[in-house]
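Case study.
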Amino acid sequence: MLGLTLKEVSLAFREGKISPTELCRKCLNRIKKTQRLNAYITVTEEFAMKQARQSEARLLQGIPKGPLDGIPFAVKDNFCTANIRTTCASKMLKDYTPPYNATVVQKLLDQGAVLMGKTNMDEFAMGAGSTDGAFGPVRNPWSYSDSYRTQGGAASDSDWVITGGSSGGSAAAVASCTSYLALGSDTGGSTRNPGALCGVFALKPTYGLVSRHGLIPLVNSMDVPGIITRSVSDAAIALGVLQGIDVRDSTTVPAPSALAELPEDFDVKNICVGIPKEYHAPGLSEETLAQWSRVADLFEKAGARVEQVSLPHTQYSIVCYHVLCHTEVASNMARFDGLEYGHRSEMKSSTEVMYASTRHEGFNDVVRGRILSGNYFLLKQNYQHYFVKAQKVRRLIADDFRHVFGSGVDVLLTPTTLTDAACYHDFTQEDNRTRSAQEDVFTQPANIAGLPAVSVPIALSRRGLPIGLQLIGPALEDKKLLCVAQWVEQRVNFPSISDCDNTQESRKDPGVTRREQTSAI
Amino acid sequence: MAASSIAARELLHNIKLIPYYQKSSCLFSRRISTSKLQCSSQPPEKSAPQQLVGVVGLEIHAQISSNTKLFSGSSVQFLAPPNSSVSFFDASLPGTLPVLNRRCVEAAVMTGLALNCTINKKSVFDRKHYFYADLPAGYQITQQRRPVAVDGVLTYSFLGGRKRSQVMRKNVHIKQIQLEQDSGKSLHDDVNSQTLIDLNRAGVGLMELVMEPDMSCGEEAAAAVRELQLILQALGTCQGNMSEGQLRVDANVSVHRPGEPLGTRTEVKNINSIRYLARAIDFEVQRQTAVVRRGGAVLNETRAYDSKSGETVAMRDKEGLQDYRFMPEPNLPPLLVFEDEASLPAGVEAGEAVLLRTLRARLPELPSVRRDRLVQTYGLLPEHSFTLVNEDGLMEYFEAVMKGTSRDPRKVIGWVTNELLGLLKQQDLSVSHSPVLPAALAELLELQEAGCISSSAAKQVFQEMWRSPGKAALQIIQELDLGLVSDAADLHRICQKVVDSHPDKVRAVRSGNQKVLNKLMGLVQKETKGRADPVLVREILQEKTS
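After joint prediction, the assembly is written out as follows.
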């Protein structure tokens, strides 16, 4: 039951196969069993049970609110939740309890979805591994899968692999079957990256389609709430609920269409799939490249037009991203001064001393480093040279996409990450900045341009770990993008971690069941 | 807490509130006449080409009169209990976003239109960063790069000339009007060495107006600010009370010799009335003049005006150079203003958009137009129209009196600007607190017009009406027996008495000195306590002295 999709569970509720309270209890138990993943910072057990009971009452009365009623979901700990602490995985907000719900959280609660808890992440979403948070790193559930244990040659428990990030907790929650749906945030790939490494579906909607109100920002001009599910159609259901204008977020736009069901038999015959040549980046693993080719072939064989395209400014994207990211970080973090909320240092000899020590104690090195460089970029004598230049490059990158999509391409197919998940031990050899630059290389251009993008799990690597591919679409073509993604999903038959419903408590390691092994249609 | 890094602009937020009865709406043309400095608006003397003159520019923060704040739904109230009007956004809780208040935009646009500005059809918001306890986000949202209105001009006047009765008209350029957030207030408790923060004001909408350095002295700056105040009040975009901080004025002052480059300027803050503005500027011009004459150099610094000593004193300056690290506010789309409904793009509702045509139509009668109208309608002198408009409520008072009397407006104006205003000033009352209502004054003037009382008796009656509010003029005339003596027999008797007792004067008149006749008339009025009908008296006396 835990391994089902959201859609399947919703049906099971209606058919009386399981009740929301039973399911909620199962998920809570599973959270306890998978505690070592460190996916959750806060588990909202009582609140979840209360919601589940309310949902159950509605189901019994025959008036469920919709497909999300009773569905357990998890929320990245940078979305505000009323009366539930929201930490951003930072010491700065370790004990911070917001008085309001983020719009996206409120919308899910209004639909009767059951909040299981707040998920772990990199501090203030600054990272690509979910290794740099105040609550410790998140472990990839696939670290304990049969496939990795047998094929990956994992010798000891210390060989566990990272989830990717920064929404690693949310991806781990969905992959380890403790929630059917999780909210992440995606600024440079923070939802798609862990989605790919954890073998789950991840959607970064068009910028402005989903409200950011209540999302503690990383980069306001790029942040988008992300959706992590076990299937494309689940993500479509969630997006249908979450999208649309929010008066509290002036950057939101009206949803172009109501999004309910995706057509099961979407035809790719008339679409054009672009393969950007610049995405053959150094460091791209052979296996990922092979999967990329395989899926391109799938499209071609199904009658789609597959074309090589060029996004010439891609190489400048990551530098541009870092300048813009750091400047906004410097600005957005200014409010954490220990006065109104959050950590306050004991050193109070003057306001300035308190500010300085509060911020020194509250933020980790990564955050402090970005604040420092961001403020440097914004100095009067540097503004033109860094910020303005980066904005111009941003425009060029967005124009690249516009040209490609304007030339008849419907969707771009690229890798999501360079490789499958790295071992924690290997990953932490490099510093955060270097890692972010490497890990975000395929994902952040979509944020720079505000485009919708998804990561679809494709296959397992030789190490027995998930490989994902990315699809990028034109702005506000989220539905079409999801249709194409579903088409891919239907053909690659990605295996799921299978022990979700395993009643053998003694068995710790999830196994992998291949539903149907195919390499091509 | 130490205030060592107080950015100077923040100090203006710590203006001590002065008791509200100190009216900022003084008639500066009178009050600042004590100013020692001669304004260079007088033609410069050719003999002193090396004379230093002041150069004054102003930065004005006008609190927008609106129900809610610039970017949040919390209400705007003066003197509300501390932190009682603070939304999540105002307290900069993480995850909150600004939502622009259209009323504030309309106020800024209307103000821009009234000041002959070019309205930018597209303007943008920026973040200005600095750490201060009453700025919870660590930045202020303002319009640094492209403000909502630019390039305007304010025409102002003041009474100058030898007798201070000549209306001097001047222009000052408005560089820009930008929308921005107000900060909260810090209260430093030195005894317990703590700072208390009140965020009620945090996020209230401000219009920052930058006036170019086109002024040369306190009097001009005061007149410009008074004119601006009147315009804002007429528009209803700002209540304009300086003592309540609704209008905050900082002055940039420098001195130079005409024709030479501008001198180093200082910024004078902590000015909370128009009177103090004039004094602060004049003090600063004199101080800088003295520094330059000594061969010294004026420092580029921020100075605070001390109203007790009448001096400006150097404030502890910003530690080093403050770099505000401006960047575009990413959470607000560009602010768009449209000409009219026809120019709206698809998908934008007319009810949601800011339309110039609609706002132009809503512009009320502005002070300059009022003055012209008063001159044309009533045949008043320009200086009278000036006084009527510049004194809060005086024009309305005057027009209300005019409704109730058929007297010549030029006579009525004397009553209003001399008798009424004199008493109001004497007792430091505003027009709205006048014990004599316009209708009562009109009644008095009617009685005078009808010949029931003499003008000197009317003044006595007015004094009495002032002392006993509500008592009708007629009643006072009867009680004090001030009615005009127009009974011919009575007057003949009194005139005869005067003529008989002053034979020398009668002789003088008879020998052709007609001026002495007036003296005789005065003696008659003295006898009648001013009640005698002067026309009749003159006739009788002429008859008796001929």
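Observations recorded in class. Chain B touches chain A at residues 1-5, 88, 91-100, 127, 129, 131, 133, 136-139, 195, 197, 323, 325-327, 330-333 (CB under 8 Å). Chain B has three domains: 8-37+54-328, 391-479, 488-545. We will return to this complex in the next lecture.
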